[in-house]
Amino acid sequence: MVQAQSPLTGNHPDKKSDNNCSSATVSRSGNAHQQQGRNSHEHLTEIDEEVRVSGQALEEFESLVSLKIKAEQQLLSQKGGSKKKLSEVDEERRSILLLLFEKYLREKGLSKSAEILRMEKHREQLELEGFTPVKNQFSVSKELESNVDQELVTQYIGKTEKELEQLSITEFPYHRTMFTSHFEKVKNPSTNLELKVLRSNFDLENVLLSAAIKTNSAIINEKLGLINEDTLDLSNLDSLELELSKPIHTETVLRYINAATSDNLKPIDKICLMYQNMGISSGQFFTCLSSWLSSSDDKVTETKANAYRALKHWLQKYYLYYTKFDLEGVQAYTKLTCTLRTFIRSNEGKLKRISQTLGDNFDLEKFVSRTNSTFSYSQMLTAVERTIQQKMSRSSKLIECITQIETKSFVSHLSYLFGRLFLRIEPQELFGANWTKSRKKYQCPNIIDNIDFFNTYSLWFASLIVQEEQLERRVAVLEYLINLAMCCANVGNYGALYAIASAIRNGSVFRMKQTFDSISESSKKEYEKLQQIISTDMNSANYTKQLRETYEKALSDFSICCIPNLVFGSSKAITQIHVQIGSG
Amino acid sequence: MAPKETTTNSNSNGMQEFKLAVIGGGGVGKSALTVQFIQNIYIEEYDPTIEDSYRKHAKIDDKPVFLEILDTAGQEEYKALRDSYMRTADGFLMVYSVIDRKTFEEVNEFYEQILRVKDCDKAPMVLVGNKCDLESERVIRIDEAKVYSKQLGIPMIETSAKQRLNVDESFALLVREVRKSLKSSDEDQLTKKKKKPCSIL
Lengths: 584, 201
Prior knowledge:
The structure holds two protein chains of two kinds. Chain A contains 30 helices and no strands. Among the domains of chain A are: 99-128; 244-372, Son of sevenless (SoS) protein, Chain S, domain 1, CATH 1.20.870; 401-582, Ras guanine-nucleotide exchange factors catalytic domain (Son of Sevenless (SoS) protein, Chain S, domain 2, Orthogonal Bundle), CATH 1.10.840. In chain A, helix 3 packs antiparallel against helix 4, helix 4 (111-127) packs parallel to helix 7 and helix 24 runs antiparallel to helix 25. Chain A has helices at 15-34, 41-78, 83-107, 111-127, 139-146, 150-156, 161-180, 191-199, 204-212, 217-228, 236-245, 250-259, 266-278, 282-293, 302-317, 327-346, 348-358, 364-371, 377-389, 399-402, 407-422, 440-443, 445-467, 471-491, 494-504, 507-510, 513-517, 521-534, 537-556, 571-583. Chain B is α/β, with parallel strands linked by helices. In chain B, helix 3 (101-118) links the parallel strand 4 and strand 5. In chain B, helix 2 packs across helix 3. The termini of chain B are far apart. The model of chain B is unreliable at 1-8 (pLDDT under 50). The chains are: A mainly alpha, B alpha/beta. The A-B interface holds A 432-433, 435-438, 440, 448, 451-452, 454-455, 458-459, 462, 498-499, 501-503, 505-507, 510-511, 513, 516-517, 519, 524, 527, 534-539, 541, 544, 566-567, 570-572 and B 1-3, 19, 26-27, 45-55, 68, 70-71, 73-81, 83-85, 87-88, 113, 116-117, 119. Chain A: Residues 406-584 form the Ras-GEF domain. Chain A: InterPro entries: Ras-like_GEF (IPR008937), Ras_GEF_dom_sf (IPR023578), RASGEF_cat_dom (IPR001895), RASGEF_cat_dom_sf (IPR036964).
């Protein structure tokens, strides 16, 4: 029915959050049960905070779910559906919740209990087929809330299998009463339900937390009661969403960001991580901050300053990780970026005043627009290629990323690109220097391709440096490229080496004396070496020598690629190498 | 590191040492010209194999000079490399073919790029019309080239690498240009300390 450890819906948090959650779980039970001061008091308060926040997550989750159901119900009733149909929708929801709970048990390593739960469900299902109890449509969540709570789950942790079994037997009759009503109508819960779970917007983490927390049940009940009214119509959907987007965690966030000082940003880290690990949109955090920052009061209060600091920190450290390399993340990220931009633009004056008071010249808008183009690594490389193919768009889109790409990976990608083209060259193309003559496009199309590729890349590398407006960034890119060129030399990719070297020696780059003056000593040394390799002295003797050596090495060691630059290598050597590579 | 790359103009013996680049469009005979100048032979095919074949001791205007010739044949399409070799060279032979108008028109592109890379108004250059032995196929008249070279403010000469006509002369002309520019820049440094190109016309 349910595959153990199966990955759930998209926004499953990383391992860290998992650990966090279970630690919160254990401590929570410690708080409720033992209260023997095993954990420090401070820690407990923190945990309580976390619990509170996650409770609010549950609240949102619940209301959204209910809203969804309500909407579905309305649609159904419009089609002339009966009350019976409404309860079907409920059933679905209930089963989904239960399934999620089962998954949760499995993920927490409680496969035994999960198995028992599954058996139990199955049995109930068979027993009660056809039986339709009249129940409050929101009973599930309430029951989940009150019955399947954290304490129960934590009791299972650390027990042996036998003990677990015993416990389950003693515990589950209690649950049976709860489950009885849920599965009477689910005849084929396996495939259909599984699909629905995957398609639904249910967040396992939230369900998990909903099971773990009772603290906010009053609020939830209130909210549920509100939605429970039959008067709810579809137009309320918007208003509810609006309500949810209001900063509801304000107090918590405020406490954390006020605790932070300019030297100690740990509290901000804590709250950011909390949001991140809770699977709650970081947008919520941003909403909190923005409400203070954009308040009509013109005075720069302490709260505002703190909020500014927090916003800056969050942008620098957490905003970038928002995507988490998955598609949904990227979408959410794009949305968030839009909101961020509008916010920054509409509150420019206020933000400026705050930053002036803090004596800080961080440009939020620039940061957002720069980082907006952060892709995942593979996307980045594809994008690099695409940009080149589009004849280098002039936007500084990728520059931020270039220095972030690991040199080794970049070199291997370059070797792939240059090597792929080089291998296409047919031996007959190399005769008689036909690529310099008028019929070059017909006689040596692949050589021309190679040369075009070389030129495009070289110009692109040069533009990477030139596009940077700030000196430090230019220096960083230049150093990176020097390092990259040397790495190319080490792997024998002389095509790329020449492309980078000629980019650095491009007139527009070479003119920038300050940039060259401020590169580090080690980079200077590397640059000297680079110049020696590409020196044209003695008809590029250094290069031809090195090329020959690399070629000898490449014959025995296949990890070296040896992609010569067509021009300076003697045509004989190239032909030789080419034939070798071609046959190898 | 300040990207200073002026070549050493004198070697350990006190002899002047110049790096000269032979540039121009594809198939104008750059290699033929270079090899004819250094080895006194005419080659049909491009074969840049021997490293030492591009260095030569010469005596121009009774003064010995050590020349290193950078033959850019085969690199015409490598536009990204041009900046790099233009910076290293002291003087340029801008070669075009008198039987190919396209190569003549390309000269302007080279001229402008050299000035841009050298970052000054004037650089030692000589305009060379090669293949002047092929009189029947000629499309660039010598008057036209002369007018153009005057416009650029550089000397002009017609050569034939095949018949070894004006080959040494063209290189001698360039060496003179380089010396002239060195002298004027020395004078400039004495008078002003700021580089200013001389006006010879």
